[in-house]
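Could you help me review a protein record that somebody else here produced? What it holds is a sequence and that sequence's fold in token form. I have pasted the whole thing underneath without changing anything:
=====
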Amino acid sequence: MSETQKENNEELENKVEQNEEVNEEIIDSKEEINSEKIEEKAEEIVENKIAEYEEKNKSLQDLLLRKAAEFENYKRRTENDQLNLMKYAAESFIIKILPIYDDLQRSVQHLGEDSFESVKNGLKLVLDKFTKTLDDQGIKKIEAKGQEFNVDFHEALLQQPSKEVPPNTVIEEVDPGYFYKDRVIKHAKVIVSKEVEE
């Protein structure tokens, strides 16, 4: 190989190396540019997502506030309904006993004008009407006299010796007791028998 050829080869190799270096620089630049674009795109996506979630969060907060206000209104209405229900619970019963009250007033107004018998009959009619009204409402009298003493229905005031009935029998009803439906609302006050001491 001549000297000239050697020089040409070396020059060629140098140029090839220079080209390779330039190519590497170009590739690095491209990669850097792509990386920057990806980062920018990622930032844009994240910002959009944050804005979307902020909007959703705001909508949820508004919805929560509306629901809380609606619940407060519902709670207030329910409380008022319950108060009114308790306040006027006896209304239907009072409506039913008002005619009896009116009958009693009329009976009192005619005292002295009518005979004793007519007043007695009038009061009996009022009593029957009152008894029926109470019965319709589920109010019933507790049977006491002649029954075995039962602490669930009777309240013993005292005991008296008796040979006529077995011990622990109600021999006298001092004050009547009443059921309201299946509940005892007033115990009957009674006198109860006991064995006669010999």
Remarks:
- The two ends are 161 Å apart (CA to CA).
- The longest helix spans residues 3-87.
- The CA atoms of residues 37 and 43 lie 10 Å apart.
